[in-house]
Amino acid sequence: MSVLTADAEKKKSGLRASSQRRDVGLYDDGLTEEQLISKDRISPEDVLALHHITDDYLCSPDANVYDIDFTRFKIRDMETSTVLFEIAKPSGPDGEACEGEDGASDDEELDPNAGRFVRYQFTPEFLKLRTVGATVEFTVGSRPVNKFRMIERHYFRDRLLKMFDFEFGYCIPNSRNSCEHIYEFPAIPPDLAQEMIEHPFETRSDSFYFVDDVLIMHNKADYAYNGGLQQP
């Protein structure tokens, strides 16, 4: 489930809620990463046909022609409302995210993929959570955004753990938006959970973002669940 709000110039849209898509399935006829990279346009059906985590990004940062910029991200335990992780871009005096003189952050000037990867460090207790809320704030440029959709796939090594499919819907131009996705995690067998704890950052995810069924952003993350444990 996701809840989306938006502000644009002093006007506020009504609160909208949309459920996670339930018609998502794995495709028997898989596609390779190399096949997708060679395509001019990548669709949601294309990434759903992948059977493994990607090694590279399936689109360049330039594919984001809608100037969608994620400015804040927060993860919380839905049962206790405890904030587990939070990160935000620094804001200037006008409330806008700080950037370099040419519109790019210093890190992005050095590495164009710097803003597309996040590394998470959690404690083993995170693997016991069943419902987590992820709040994301983002801005949109001068073009309207139709059918904004995210497909996120989580793997441990080459094993698909869980797939999420959320629809942001329509975003008006020049708007600042806030959306909370509700992640319902499956129960993880104790032996698998122990492997994930003992092998930090071998749990990884691909997040694919689409507008009008065309891939425009691809973000990556990896995860460790050994926080607080004494290291050998």
Main sheet specs: 7 strands, antiparallel
End-to-end separation in angstroms reads 40 Å
Low-confidence stretches: 9-19
- Net shape: globular
Can you count the helices?
4
Residue share in β-strands: 35-45%
- Report the structural category: mainly beta
Secondary-structure blueprint:
Elements: E1 2-8, E2 11-12, E3 16-18, H1 33-37, H2 44-48, E4 69-77, E5 83-88, H3 106-110, E6 117-121, E7 131-139, E8 145-156, E9 159-171, E10 176-184, H4 190-198, E11 203-211, E12 214-224
Parallel strand pairs: 6-12
Antiparallel strand pairs: 1-2, 1-3, 1-10, 4-5, 4-7, 7-10, 8-9, 8-11, 11-12
Explain what you see.
This protein has helices spanning 33-37, 44-48, 106-110, 190-198; strands spanning 2-8, 11-12, 16-18, 69-77, 83-88, 117-121, 131-139, 145-156, 159-171, 176-184, 203-211, 214-224. With 232 residues, the chain is mainly beta. The strands form 2 sheets. Strands 1, 2, 3, 4, 5, 7 and 10 form a 7-stranded antiparallel beta sheet that branches. Mean pLDDT is 85; it is low at 9-19.
Concise summary:
The protein has 232 residues and is mainly beta.
